[in-house]
């Protein structure tokens, strides 16, 4: 297949290299032509503009820094829209905004061009090695027809749902990453200021129950299955532990902003009479505030997801 690739930066160059290594004929474009040199040396063709690239290929892949960059690449006299042929496919591998990908999907569909939002996770090393997650939103038939392309770049390409679904999954993931970073910053600073050396502290918490599991598995057994009535560890006991940790933080003058929020929610849940429920039951306050029903994924679906990943 003839594939156009725009954006040969830290992420894009690895994905484009894997597509080229898989035998696809490549047309490339970047703001800096020198970024394309390794691809041109291996037989790729250079396009001076996105329009010229789109006119020459069946599928366009983009890996761009911001939603504004995606719109700029799409629009204008020399943009992708001006060059696409009917039946073409645009796979946007950027972390975009939901509004922008839905807008592009609708506008391109009017001219018979398919658009998939397909943000990736794995960093530059994963992009280069192919050990990369790609979460795809858009028309299922287009995803299925493009599977060879995704599999050339990724060992974990998954169709998530209609347009925007891939972007939502990526934004949820990265928000969880950011909060986890903040949480680790809090707890490590507490342990160090309370008198522990950082290295043995980090090793110790990695060997605990939470440290031994994948981050997102922590809520799979209870909260995600709606199993909060019968506790594996009671909320009142978890709150006791959090309270003791916060006392220690006060004793050594360490601010614990995230932990304070968690403690407040636990207190509210206990005041509702949930103290003997599972320790994850306070998370039901979040679904209530969001105006959604409690999440209830079947045990079979949970296990299936674990097996597949």
CATH class of the largest domain: Alpha Beta
Mean pLDDT: 93
CATH homology superfamily of the largest domain: NAD(P)-binding Rossmann-like Domain
CATH topology of the largest domain: Rossmann fold
- String of helices and strands: EHEHEHEHHEHEEHEHHEHHHHHH
Form type = elongated
Radius of gyration: 24 Å
Strand runs, count: 9
Give the helix level as a range of percent: 40-55%
CATH architecture of the largest domain: 3-Layer(aba) Sandwich
Number of helices: 15
Largest sheet: 6 strands, parallel
Strand arrangement, major sheet: 3-2-1-4-5-6
Q: In percent, how much strand structure appears in the residues?
A: 5-15%
**Oligomeric category:** single chain
Give the termini separation.
Answer: 29 Å
How do the strands and helices of this protein lay out in sequence?
Elements: E1 2-6, H1 12-21, E2 25-29, H2 37-41, E3 45-46, H3 50-56, E4 59-62, H4 67-74, H5 80-83, E5 89-92, H6 98-109, E6 114-117, E7 120-121, H7 123-129, E8 133-137, H8 140-145, H9 147-153, E9 156-161, H10 165-193, H11 198-206, H12 235-251, H13 257-271, H14 284-290, H15 299-308
Parallel strand pairs: 1-2, 1-4, 2-3, 4-5, 5-6, 8-9
Antiparallel strand pairs: 7-8
Helix pairs in contact: 1-7, 12-13
